[in-house]
Amino acid sequence: MTQLAEILSREALRIDRVLPAAPDRVWANLVEAKKRSRWFCAGDDLTGVGQRFELHFGHHRITDEPPPEKYKRFDGTQPDFVSHGEILEFEPNRRLRFSWMETAGGASDVLFELSPRGDGTHLVITHSKLPNREELVGVGGGWNAHLNVLEDELMGRKHRGFWTDIARFEVELERVVPK
Hints:
CATH architecture: 2-Layer Sandwich
Mean pLDDT: 94
CATH class: Alpha Beta
Shape: globular
Oligomer: single chain
Distance between the termini: 14 Å
Radius of gyration: 15 Å
Helix content: 25-40%
């Protein structure tokens, strides 16, 4: 285990965070596209079980920091990268689970669990059915960097260096994820 993620298997990880906002505010940032676009991705509002939706990734919306060459496609000069999903569970302010099709392979599965923690929210993200080690490392780094931006957004402060965080998190996860 790293502080960034608990590696559950060769295809799954779990991330635990306490965020500085009540569960209803965190939930709104997960399901409302306008709010979600400021920390993660644009796309459709998420409304209920069975809904098919799109996620539009254009990281220029969440950071002024230029991306490294590896992520150049997210610099805002090209159309957003679009992925698709379907909502599998939808319990407002508590649980959201969806399938997420990013590539030509099978869909991964993302579960968000929210619970009150003092004045904040304990958020647990479990991302499973990842196809390989590279995706496990990338997803772990990505979720942690996006959650840093969400924390900044909830606190009303300038977003920290998203791409700097990604690079740092991927290095740490490369060390701890079994080969």
